[in-house]
Batch of 2 targets.
Target 1
Amino acid sequence: MATRRIIHNLALVGFMGSGKSTVGRLVAQDLGFQFVDTDALIEEKAGIPITEIFATEGEQAFRQLERETILELGKEEKQVIATGGGAIMHPENLTSLKSHALVVCLWANAESIYERTKHQTHRPLLQGENPLGTIQTMLAEREPVYKQADVIVNTELRPQREVITQVRHQFEESCGGTAGRAES
Ligand code: S3P
């Protein structure tokens, strides 16, 4: 039997370039919720962009800020939260999100992610010589963790508007009830 959970918020997880911020903003609009982006909160807290946090203080410092930021999100309700692609690799972050939010993973395969991100420069982890190879390796490492989300929505099988409808539908189904495991 699934554990009963009180769901006040919706959290989007998934690899870089999976559409968490775009979809999150639009779902928040539909639901009349506040949109929260953990990367933006971290930048606000640090006073510098993420690329600079990685360059000057290193990834561990970024991950520490990310954990602190995610822990604070449980205090508020009616939020759609877009997380950074690596956030739930720390188990504490997934546990914390699941304590107040339905956790929905937006899924895309490595090639699509590469196509969506190849001209962008704000992700330090994808700035190396072989971004497609990096994406393939990281996605394979992260996949088992992404699969621990409550719901997985494949963003490749449908237009964005349908992804938004699907995410919203899953959230409304789970609200105040039992968040089970679903794939769509
Ligand atoms: C990261 C993803 C980024 C950002 C940071 C690290 C990751 O967020 O948190 O660059 O480890 O996957 P997006 O998924 O919003 O690009």
Note: The beta strands are 9-13, 34-37, 79-82, 101-107, 151-154, 182-183.
Target 2
Amino acid sequence: MKYGNIIDNDKIIDEVLVSYFKAPKSYTTEDMCEINSHGGNVIMRKILEICLNNGAELAEPGEFTKRAFLNGRIDLSQAESVIDIINAKSEREAKEGIKQLEGFLAEAISRIKKEILEVITNIEVSIDYPEYDTPEVLEDELREKMELILKKLNELEKTFDNGKIIKEGIKTAIIGRPNAGKSSLLNAILKEDRAIVTEFEGTTRDTIEEFVNINGIPLKLIDTAGIRDTKNEVERIGIEKSRKMAKDADLVILIIDGSKELSLDDKEILNIVNRSRTIVILNKMDLEQKINENTEVIKDFDNIIKISALKKEGINDLYNKITDLFNLNDISIDNDIVITNERHKVLIRKAKEDLISARNGLDNNMPIDIVAIGLKDVLSDLGEITGEEASEEIINEIFARFCLGK
Ligand code: GDP
């Protein structure tokens, strides 16, 4: 670190310290220097202007981190963690970012990739030297290894649910046709003593995101404003809106008026939701019931709860069901790796799908070299996470999210 002055036209602009990083021991692995000035807008701008006039170029957003990645000092998942650290809203989130920056995810991915490579190698050896193993032995071995890898991918993918819950809460949509009891349930939940409600401005201007903490489970209620504020029956949540909300949600609470026969609207909504992510509520159990858990369509659902939103009965059963479904006890804070990045999750899921279809190929007596091709797809899915297989477009898109000069 050198002490000196920045001089322009023989005039001292500022008294500064300059640190010099010799390649490859710098953030980007290139020769680098940093100027520590007294700061302040005027002087900083002046120094920048002098640098630019003397041949420096202004960095693009994320350019430093991008160079670190392109020069191979960090992988793509580590580069992405830099954004997460900068944007972290909680200490916990920042901690996850730091872990990723240290390369935990990259290591886990590279271990899995190595195992897949071994399987591919086995296949290739068996093609080149067919006398080496009998096909049955080889296939059993391959199947076993693929199951093991699938298990690891599953475990990784599962951590994303936890990561996301920690980060954002369970995105919950309360849907159902008009008069089913949505706003009554909402009121019952919000008035609960244990429900700690926080209101945030939603991402779109006229939506309100409400966080409700139930039994330690953070629920982020989607678009509750639409449920409460609209007095006009026609404007209440319709099928299209329900479809959209259900699609965006981690958890759908679908309310049906149990005192009425199922309407066409009910049936349509029942058909559009994802069953594994839905809790069907038969509301108005204080009235005579026209439907129950054995009614056609409803009986296909695993999670059915009867409540009376009006009398606030059965609400606890709903809470217990949510606790069961998301099994938050499984979230261990110091778990090695928690996937927090949506892009990584999508790729892990894709790797899983490609692996499953390779395994199915094996089960269906597909030629073994075709199975190997399927496994190479899995490798390239995983390579997209760490960056060696990511397209330039994706890389550019990722770094465009950075702030200037990072
Ligand atoms: P939304 O249109 O789905 O939001 O339905 P509301 O919550 O506004 O409820 C519609 C009507 O059904 C209101 O008159 C509520 O008082 C009534 N209601 C809601 N839940 C129950 C319940 O559990 N039992 C009875 N008897 N009536 C209910």
Note: The first helix runs from residue 41 to 53.
